[in-house]
Amino acid sequence: MIAEAWARRRYKAAFVNKIDEALGEAYETQSWLDDALDGAYLSKQDFDRLDDRYAAIGGMLSRMIDRADDFCKYALTIARSHARKNLRSLITDH
Questions:
Q1: Given this model, what pLDDT does residue 23 score?
Q2: pTM beyond 0.85, yes or no
């Protein structure tokens, strides 16, 4: 989902939506970690290590949503320059 968000960063709403979906998946992972600990599939030490990693990833995804303009700004510049170039070639190729 993060790769899809990056590919769609030309549109801020699409970018935020995909990152938000990735964050939802991270929450689901945390739920599975809780279940694995409760079922004694994970030691407390392994749970803590993985849960810390989950928290770091969740924080990064949240910051990406909060700073979506920073991620999408460059993509809009690229898209506009390609559009201008394509428009120029349509006009000058005839």
A1: 94
A2: no
